[in-house]
Design goal:
Strand order of the largest sheet: 1-2-3-4
Radius of gyration: 73 Å
Strand content: 5-15%
Oligomer: single chain
Order of helices and strands: HHHHHEEEE
């Protein structure tokens, strides 16, 4: 067996172990040297660590507290159905056809006459006060209705008003009155009231007269012809 044949496998094993095997020498051949050059190759390691990569430092992570929400059982609520009635139709206005009877225009009724109120006509003195108030404001119509029905039949409203207008030309009209007292009359249905009349003209003399009130069938009093009423100078 050749010496080189068995040394080659031995040297290969030694190369794998990382050692260099010196060349074998033949003890019988002292003069001849054979140089054996063995090339070594580095073995790749399978457990080579991966290259280190620098990772930037991160801020510490704050742990978020875990909130445990208790489970709630939701019970569905069924609302009662609301029945909305349909809107009723609006009433249709039917134009009213005037009949022959209603088509006639009724004449307006005249307002009631301005007679003295029942309270004022219940007592002669109060009736005289009421008469003088109307005299001051020249409301001759109320004065005329405060007279008795017999007097109003003889003297019209127009003529009655002219009596007071003619009197106002002389004294300026009534300014105030002063009731003095009662006066006697011949008729038991009549009562007299004595009073003083003061006029607006300062030079006009005060007039002391008697007003006669007569009781009517309904119990109310009315003024009758008396010195209380201005005189008609046309009849003198």
């Amino acid at each position: 067996m050749n010496v080189k044949a068995w040394m080659l496998p031995l040297c290969a094993a030694m190369l794998l172990a990382g050692t260099v095997c010196p060349a074998a020498t033949d003890p019988t051949d002292d003069d001849e040297w054979e140089e054996v050059v063995v090339r070594r190759r580095k073995k790749k390691r399978l457990d080579k660590p991966a290259p280190t990569v620098a990772v930037p430092a991160q801020a510490p992570t704050v742990a978020t507290p875990t909130v445990i929400v208790p489970s709630v059982v939701v019970t569905p609520v069924v609302a009662p159905a609301v029945v909305v009635p349909p809107p009723s139709p609006a009433p249709v206005a039917v134009p009213e056809i005037p009949s022959a009877a209603t088509a006639e225009v009724k004449p307006e009724e005249p307002p009631p006459p301005p007679e003295p109120p029942a309270e004022e006509a219940a007592e002669p003195r109060r009736l005289v006060r009421y008469f003088c108030k109307a005299w001051k404001v020249k409301d001759y119509e109320r004065l005329w209705w405060a007279m008795s029905p017999e007097y109003r039949k003889k003297v019209s409203l127009k003529k009655f008003g002219k009596l007071f207008e003619s009197d106002a030309e002389l004294n300026g009209g009534l300014y105030d009155e002063n009731i003095i007292g009662s006066a006697k009359t011949r008729n038991h249905d009549q009562e007299g009231v004595k009073l003083e009349l003061i006029f607006k003209f300062t030079r006009a003399r005060h007039r002391i007269v008697t007003a006669i009130a007569e009781r009517q069938p309904d119990g109310a009093f009315r003024i009758v012809e008396s010195p209380f009423i201005p005189k008609d100078f046309d009849d003198l």
